[in-house]
Write a structure and sequence with these properties.
CATH architecture of the largest domain in chain B: 3-Layer(aba) Sandwich
Distance between the termini of chain A: 45 Å
Subcellular location (chain A): Membrane
Shape of chain B: globular
Largest sheet of chain A: 5 strands, antiparallel
CATH class of the largest domain in chain B: Alpha Beta
Strand content of chain A: 15-25%
Helix content of chain A: 55-70%
Protein name (chain A): histidine kinase
Strand content of chain B: 15-25%
Main location (chain A): membrane
Radius of gyration of chain A: 43 Å
Number of strands of chain B: 12
Radius of gyration of chain B: 18 Å
EC number (chain A): 2.7.13.3
Mean pLDDT of chain B: 86
Low-confidence stretches of chain A: 1-17
GO molecular function, one term (chain A): phosphorelay sensor kinase activity
Shape of chain A: rod-shaped
CATH class of the largest domain in chain A: Alpha Beta
CATH topology of the largest domain in chain A: Heat Shock Protein 90
CATH architecture of the largest domain in chain A: 2-Layer Sandwich
Oligomer: heterodimer
Helix content of chain B: 40-55%
CATH superfamily of the largest domain in chain A: Histidine kinase-like ATPase, C-terminal domain
Number of domains of chain A: 4
Structural class of chain A: alpha+beta
Number of helices of chain B: 8
Strand order of the largest sheet of chain A: 2-1-5-4-3
CATH topology of the largest domain in chain B: Rossmann fold
Structural class of chain B: alpha/beta
Largest sheet of chain B: 5 strands, parallel
Mean pLDDT of chain A: 78
Chain lengths: 502, 228
């Protein structure tokens, strides 16, 4: 960075440089004219010799501009007077008759030179403004795709350093202070100039090789752009001011798009909250209704209900409470996952051990379904959030139970594939229609079932996906399974790097 | 007396598992339909004494099922709905459902609604000529209203509203039906209704600010307490 800063400092442009070049050019053109005039004069006559001098002056003007033309005209006047006007080899003029041609010659030389020089200057100015215009166009084109501040700065850098001997540094107000964006600043003079620009409304402000323009937007003072000029002529004011306006617009747009992105993120959070709340009101009501109806029935019909029915109602209450509890955990974990909080709670778990505990808990809900476990001989370790791992597998196993008939089998296979632990849960149930295989992992998405089935929260698989991805793994659904029916959910989690026992 | 036959239309197994044994214990005969299609099939085959209809069926909306029921049957229908289904619930009531219960409910509340709906139906067949509850008595043929034996003077509109409510005593009557009874089918401004209900309460309630005869069902309508 430091090197780069050094590269970007400037030497003061030297004011005399231009006229030295003009003088050299004038000499280079006029001297040959002089030689030709001296040696060819006897044959050509004085008129032709004079015309040769004028030609030299015109060439000087055309090549070197006004300075060179005037220098050449002066040299030509002196040489003409010295060599061609009687008495030759002296600056004296012998007869009045010789004065008029000399003056006329000088006038012609000066006028021709000036005209040529002006033509040259015009051409150069036209060329400059063409270059400036086209680079403005180019910059504005690349600014259109620059939505972040660093992009703006680099667009500025690319175009300016390519076609001008000028560098522009962007200073933006962030949290009340300046920070030089991407292209690092020049020196203290530049920085001071920027500070001055921030304090007063005057824009532009010039000092030494620098010009500073304020960047103002509807929201107020956004920053400043500092132009540092190199050896040659600086780009003109109109160009710099147009560029500053473009940059101000781009900076404003970047700020807007940033706040827009923030708003979108906020809107997404809001959306999730709304969805969670509507899920609460929707999914909590059914178990609550069952519980309320059962409990009030037990109170109301205490004596008339037969013991088996009363027992069923009580069991129903317990299982609905369990369902409510799972909904609650799902909602909680979903919002935790969305907020990216799950990474903090990672720990190393033995998969086989954890799975058998989970299966034990799920089994009461499985009634006559067989849960067949096939575990790898290796003790596979994963580094995950234990509560989420538990919840995800309970969700997946619950789905397998809910969407399959009593008496069927549910297979739980745990194995290793390279650096991954692969957990497969397959059932022999209704399966998932092919169109829904991707969407089942979307929040609150539920597969439309032809026959009524208990409706889940629509969160289970969304949480499973969020969990596996946060853990650096993958999850997929396949249907039908190997037996031509049912669903296979495959969860791949990266194996924990073996920590040697201490 | 044969047991009253009730059709429970509900797609939530957990709720059906409660309602079926409990209602059977209470002496009803229960048929369960888990979706709209099987409900329609059951309605066409059997004449039920009451239908319990859970809104939000997977295959058909409650309103179109009601329309189907109302085509050829005058069976009382009680809608079971969740709070977020308010609009659907009101539509169902306007479409001819007799009453509703909100989830979650207690079984006693549900059975009281069921009894009221069944009673009203058997009474309306016999064209009941009186209403009597909580000290309030209405003699429909003479349009005489008494409160604890004292005659209550009502304006014709007040009487129309009270009669509409009393004919469906114990059940909710929607704003739309009450407006139709008092002002004609195109009336929509519930402001009138509120004013007249207020006037009625002044005349029949002990404490009009804390009514115990003419109850408000927020957002849906009004309910006159049931007889007996």
């Amino acid at each position: 960075m430091i090197d780069r800063k050094h590269q970007r400092t400037f030497s003061q442009p030297r004011a005399g440089a231009l006229s030295w070049r003009a003088a050299l050019l004038a000499g280079a053109v006029v001297l040959p004219s002089w030689f030709i005039a001296i040696y060819a004069q006897p044959g050509l006559g004085r008129v032709a010799a004079a015309l040769l001098f004028v030609l030299g002056v015109v060439i000087c003007g055309a090549l070197g501009g006004l300075g060179a033309a005037l220098a050449a005209a002066t040299a030509a006047f002196l040489l003409y007077n010295f060599y061609l006007v009687e008495p030759v080899l002296s600056f004296e003029i012998s007869t009045g008759r010789d004065v008029i041609p000399l003056l006329l010659f000088s006038l012609c030389a000066v006028v021709a030179g000036v005209l040529a020089a002006r033509l040259k200057d015009r051409a150069r100015a036209a060329d400059d403004s063409y270059r400036q215009l086209s680079s403005l166009l180019e910059i504005s084109r690349s600014l259109q795709s620059a939505v972040r501040v660093p992009d703006i700065a680099s667009a500025l850098d690319d175009h300016l350093s390519g076609s001008f001997d000028t560098l522009a540094t962007l200073f933006l107000v962030r949290d009340g202070t300046f920070d030089a964006a991407v292209n690092g600043p020049s020196d203290d003079i530049g920085l001071q100039l920027v500070r001055k620009a921030a304090d007063s409304e005057d824009s532009p402000r010039e000092e030494g090789p620098y010009t500073v323009y304020r960047l103002d937007s509807a929201a107020g003072f956004e920053g400043a752009i500092l132009f540092g000029h190199g050896l040659s002529r600086p780009p003109d004011k109109a160009f710099m001011s147009a560029l500053a306006n473009l940059i101000a617009l781009a900076v404003e747009r970047a700020a807007l798009s940033e706040s827009n992105a923030e708003r979108r993120a906020q809107a997404r959070t809001e959306e999730l909250k709304t969805a969670l709340i509507s899920s609460v009101s929707h999914d909590f009501r059914t178990p609550l209704t069952a519980i309320s109806a059962s409990a009030s029935s037990l109170i109301e019909f205490r004596d008339r209900l037969d013991p088996a029915a009363a027992e069923r109602l009580l069991r129903g209450i317990v299982s609905e409470c369990d369902r409510l509890n799972r909904y609650t955990s799902n909602l909680l974990e979903m919002s935790r996952l969305e907020a990216g909080q799950s990474l903090a709670r990672r720990q190393t778990l033995g998969v086989a051990d954890t799975m058998s505990a989970i299966v034990q808990r799920v089994r009461p809900r499985a009634s006559h379904r067989r849960i067949v476990r096939r575990m790898s001989d290796e003790d596979l370790l994963v580094n995950v959030d234990a509560a989420l791992f538990d919840l995800v597998l309970v969700n997946v196993l619950d789905n397998a139970i809910i969407y399959s008939d009593d008496g069927t089998s549910i297979h739980l296979d745990v194995g290793r594939d390279g650096d991954f632990c692969v957990i497969c849960v397959s059932d022999e149930g209704q399966g998932i229609p092919p169109d829904d295989l991707e969407r089942v992992f979307t929040r609150f998405y539920r597969v439309a079932r032809p026959r009524p089935s208990p409706r889940g929260s629509g969160l289970g698989l969304a949480i499973a996906k969020g969990f596996t991805e946060a853990a650096g793994g993958r999850i997929g659904a396949a249907s039908p399974g190997p037996g031509g029916r049912g669903t296979v959910i495959t969860i791949m989690l990266p194996l924990a790097t073996e920590s040697s026992p201490a | 007396m044969t047991a009253l036959h009730i059709l429970v239309v509900d797609d939530e197994p957990s709720l059906v598992d409660v309602l079926q044994p409990v209602l059977e214990t209470a002496g009803y005969r229960i048929t369960v339909a888990q979706d709209g299609r099987s409900a329609q099939a059951a309605i066409e085959a059997i004449e039920f004494d009451l239908i319990l209809l859970d809104l939000g069926l997977p295959d058909i909306d409650g309103k179109s099922l009601l329309q189907r029921v109302r085509l050829d049957q005058d069976v009382p229908v009680i809608v079971i709905s969740a709070r977020h289904q308010e609009a659907e619930k009101i539509a169902a009531l306007d479409e001819g459902a007799d009453d509703y219960v909100n989830k979650p409910f207690e079984i006693g509340e549900l059975m009281a609604r069921m009894r009221a709906a069944i009673r009203r139906h058997s009474l309306s067949r016999a064209e009941a000529s009186t209403y009597r509850a909580g000290g309030l008595a209405i003699d429909f043929p003479t349009r005489r209203v008494t409160l604890s034996g004292e005659t209550v003077k009502l304006s014709p509109k007040e009487y129309d509203l009270l009669q509409t409510l009393a004919r469906r005593a114990g059940q909710v009557v929607t704003h739309k039906r009450l407006l139709a009874a008092g002002w004609g089918a195109e009336a929509t401004d519930t402001q009138y209704l509120r004013v007249y209900i207020g006037l009625l309460r002044q005349k029949i309630e002990q404490d009009p600010s804390d009514p115990c005869l003419l109850l408000t069902e927020p957002g849906v309508g009004y309910r006159l307490i049931g007889t007996g």
